[in-house]
Amino acid sequence: MKELVFAGGWMMIPLILASVLAVAICIERFWTLRPENIAPKHLLAQVWMWIKNNELDSAKLKQLKQETHLGAILAAGLSNSRHGRDITKEAIEQAASTAVHEMERFLNALGTIAAVAPLMGLLGTVLGMISVFNEIMAQGTGNAGVLAGGISEALVTTAAGMMIAIPALVCYRILQRRIDEIVVFMEQEAVKLVDVLHGDREVSETPEG
Description:
Elements: H1 2-7, H2 12-32, H3 35-38, H4 43-52, H5 58-67, H6 69-79, H7 85-103, H8 107-139, H9 144-197
């Protein structure tokens, strides 16, 4: 592996840095974007039990807001429920916008790495081929070792760029899909909360329901 890195020339340095950054982002986002950590399935039922039992006070509302993104959205709706349906929905939408922004943190960087890594590999290829042609102009085609070294540098950087870009792109797509699924679930729960607060429906009082 060390020989391949050295064979790729100086362009391997930004490629290695990009790979380390991509791995760090993937680990952090997969850990952070666990559905149970963002939008617990039975949170709305728990909130409804608090409401029914007159247990929803400012302390619980603050706890709800701080623990999860879905909790922050529900807390925004509860805090503004006395102002009517439209104001409640507007508060929920603002909280949801903030939650989505937080969930998408670092994803642009990961997508950028997936797009740029092949280009950096291609740049290494071009630089390697330029080196080859310079050697041909200086020494002719008789020195096969020098020519092979330049071609090897070109091929190594191209392969490295692809090896970084492919997994980064796959992880980016998976994370985007996970965020979309979480957002849809939070939207559904928020709509249920608005309907509950304004008397259009009820939520099961047990989490299992």
